[in-house]
Automatic annotation (TrEMBL):
Keywords: Membrane, Transmembrane, Transmembrane helix
One Gene Ontology MF term: L-amino acid transmembrane transporter activity
Domain Amino acid transporter transmembrane, first and last residues per copy: 28-399
TM spans (from-to): 40-62, 102-124, 130-153, 160-182, 194-214, 235-257, 277-296, 317-338, 350-371, 383-404
Organism placement in taxonomy: Eukaryota, Fungi, Dikarya, Ascomycota, Pezizomycotina
Similarity section: Belongs to the amino acid/polyamine transporter 2 family.
Species per Swiss-Prot/TrEMBL record: Aspergillus leporis
Protein name: Transmembrane amino acid transporter protein-domain-containing protein
Amino acid sequence: MDINEKRGDITPHHQDAFGDEEFAEVKQCGLLMVAETSSLGILSLPAAVAGLGLVPAIIVLLDLGILASYTGYVIGQLKWKYPHISSIADAGELVMGPFGRVLLFIGSILYLIFIMASHILTFTVAMNPITEHCTCSIVFGIVGIIVSFRFSLPRTMRNVSWLSVASFISIIAAVFVTMIAVGVQNPGTVVKAIAEPNLVTGFTAVASIVFSYASHNTFFNMISELRDPREFPKAFAMLQCIDICLYLVTGAVIYRYAGHKVFSPALGSAGPLMAKVAYGVALPTILIAGVIYGHVACKSIYLRIFAGTSRIYNRDWVAVGSWIGIGLSLWVIAWVIASSIPVFNSLLSLMSALFGSWFTYGLPAIFWFYMNKDKWLSSSRKIALTMLNLVCLCVGIILGSGSFNCANNA
């Protein structure tokens, strides 16, 4: 029987990481996913459009967005069929055994730490024009650590999710400020329908687009905190509709007026004065989206350490102290990475190649092949889905193969 036919018979399986404390509703889950995805990724898109040209960039944005929509749904299918899965590491163990669990756990944590690093880096970039102060970026980075760590302390997504409302409003407002500013300042800028990028420029542009959709590694955690995991498609549809539309408009409009001189992060394209305004408005999303990723990383390590013990459910000094220690350690490591790779585009491209392409396209395809083993050619529909998942797998492999190039560029 097809997975979709079984879906209606599955009883909701509540798996909050700390027991039956609290469960997120669909709107909370959707807001969380929008907040974490529509943050730093969107700020690199105008530069990606400049690198590829307007027409190819729109095609790549649409195609990768549609593929990401499908692979996200596959993750939901895997969760419905195997309710015990609550993280990408659990999925790795299901498909590849203990080695798969360790591999995907380490990969997921590293990816989350790199994303946290990118938020710290963006915070330091934002503070320079806002303050016009000669303070070293290292100091701004430490301030970013302190603020992010403070907001990472709540142990459940429910307590973090409402921050995502401020995050989403923040990034939308900042983007609109930038679009209006560049439109007023540069009404006659010449743009290229098709650019002629070299390998590094082209790959960096595509990698930036991949990163803007790459949040799939956190989906298992978020589905597990839903009151009814079967409601995930509603939250995910909300995410993809908002993301794809927002990315197309932001990338095309800012590039149309800023031209080849567009900044990355894009908010810097607004001019000295309006860049201050844009970065100031964007501060909530720069901080909050990083906090969401930090929360997922903390929870994953916490569960790994205390799996099978009552510490998972307790709130005594050992449990709380461990949670605080894990969070602080992760943010310090993220700060070290941000200080080591101080170029925004280079950091995003490296993350996309090393982790994002696999978590977003390659691994979901492998999950589908596992769920449908011995059925790949059983019907015309399965053959079509098999071909689609082969495309997703190839996208993951091709984009992932650029990690060495990105590492050199970083």
